[in-house]
Amino acid sequence: MQFLPGISLLGLVISAFAKIYEDVSALPTREFDFVLTYVGFTDTTRLTENSAVSVLVLEAGASNQNILDSEVPFLASNLWGSLYDWNYTTVPQVGLDNRTIGYPRGKLLGGSSSINLMAYTRGSSDDWDKYAEMSGDIGWSWKNIQPYVRKNEGLMPPGRSPFDPRYDPLVHSRIGPVEVSLPEYYWPSDHRVLEAAQELRREFPYGLDVNDGDPLGVGWIQSTIGNGTRSSAATAYLGRDFAARPNLFVLLHAHATRITTQNGRQAQSNAEMVAAADRSLPIGTRYNVTARKEIILAAGTFNTAQLLLLSGIGDSDALSSLGITPILHLPDVGRRMSDHPLVPVTWIVKDNITFGTFLGNSTNFNIALTQWNKSRTGPFSFTPPQLFAWQRVPDKDTFLQSIADPAAGPHSAHYELIFATRELSRRPRVCTFSFAHARYLINLFPTVTGGSITINSTDPFDPPLINPNLLGTVTDGQIMIYALRAARRFVETASAWKGYIVAESGAFTNATTDAELLAFARQNARTIWHAVGSCQMTPYGVATGCVDPDLKVKGAKGLRIIDGSVLPFVPSAHTQVPIYIIAERGSDLIKKDWGL
């Protein structure tokens, strides 16, 4: 159920949120202090606090306005595969029996924050302290990123009692523009998850707040939702408070094609202009926009690496083989990307309220949508699921003792369980009995490393080659085996599930040995869309990596990256919040450099 933006095809759009340009010819100038691609609204907002600074944001997609599926949390997945999605696909994955996997990424204002599932997780204190260690910059430590966490988050406390056992108010902020909340609608399985965690608390303890630096245990999911509506980078940082800023410019349908430089092939390349195109016209209209101070790449792990490579920044030999003139030899561009593989595991349960209750029945769907339209409450006001568990393989486990711990530290998880009651099909049969044979779903993932982003074409409209290398190492496979066994223990050994669960479902039923479990994972795994690390930050003066700790591209002037591609490894988190933190601190680093 998607609604196209109600905007003109040419000229300036005055919206309820900000002024946005639909056509490059309407821009009053082509020269700005800072040019950002593609999201960058955190940086935009912070930089335009200084009225003397002009900022242009290039957005390859459309506006985020009047898109119901982006506003209604429960309907978020409807955007995947739509015109608001880059519609990427991975290369064949060796670890997944050479299958290819679809990879949704947002192609509209707000980027993936406008189509994701809105989980609000910061990662562990270990993750951030390790980032500080690996980058040589203490400013990236858990302690030192806290001001940026608080600057970003605007928690909306639940309307319950002064004490809510689902979160710790002391670790949250109410002042930031990104709205965060806990669910006010519950699925029938939720209380059983909590009962099972209580019964199995030695292995699955309850954690009060996943965002206190120690996310381990079973806990409630916090989400970037305010008053039952998605809070994205666009709604938060491009809202009414910023609409009147005359120094802020946003251009839609602007597909960045390459970065041009002032000094040609000199080692110290000075980024100056971004070449862009409008593919909405029969033959793309190419044009340049100039950044007087800096070009800031915020296009994400895939598109940032691709844009650098198209611009001649990367491995010189590989670029030359494609006919691209190298301007800066930076061989680590696109290398060592990391991501989270996900494997769904299902049980048949006795339940008459599932996701399919609303997605597969038009009457129920319309009732729930009417309730959301009227009051922003009900099942559509939050994105399922509601509960998850971040878990570690025990230190005494034989396999873990034989390798270096792949997690950042003792507070970082090796895998996650995500609990939900859902149907396997988006259009399940209409239920006429007192209960439905629904599916109880556990999604789980460990960390994977060693992926890459490359190109095999000089056409900027061709997609990059995305290889997250899912389940591509022995360690990944062993942790997934452990996670599958843990999911089975959680469901089959707790009395909370008696009388509710009917049986295991699908091929998982026959997977009992390690070899069978690994085969099941390879046949069913996909990604949960947490790719980071294609342009990693490393210490000053180090030849490896792509950016210094201040996020400036090594060996370049006037070029900085502020997105998830700079993270050295994927955190124990869904990656939305870490990227907000990078953007908030990155904005301060820019301001400091330019005396703003």
Sheet with most strands: 8 strands, mixed
Distance between the termini: 44 Å
What percentage of the residues does DSSP assign to strands (E)?
A: 15-25%
Q: Could you report the average pLDDT, rounded to the nearest whole number?
A: 87
The whole-angstrom Rg is 23 Å
Helix count from the secondary structure assignment: 14
**DSSP strand tally:** 28
Sequence stretches where pLDDT stays below 50 over 5 or more residues = 1-17, 264-268, 423-438
Question: Which of globular, elongated, flat, extended, rod-shaped describes the shape?
Answer: globular
CATH architect. name of the domain at 184-220 and 341-446 and 473-524: 2-Layer Sandwich
Category from helices, strands and their pairing: alpha/beta
Give me the oligomer status: single chain
Give the fraction of residues assigned to helices. 10-25%
CATH names the topology of the domain at 184-220 and 341-446 and 473-524 as Glucose Oxidase, domain 3
Per CATH, the class of the domain at 184-220 and 341-446 and 473-524 reads Alpha Beta
CATH superfamily of the domain at 184-220 and 341-446 and 473-524: Glucose Oxidase, domain 3
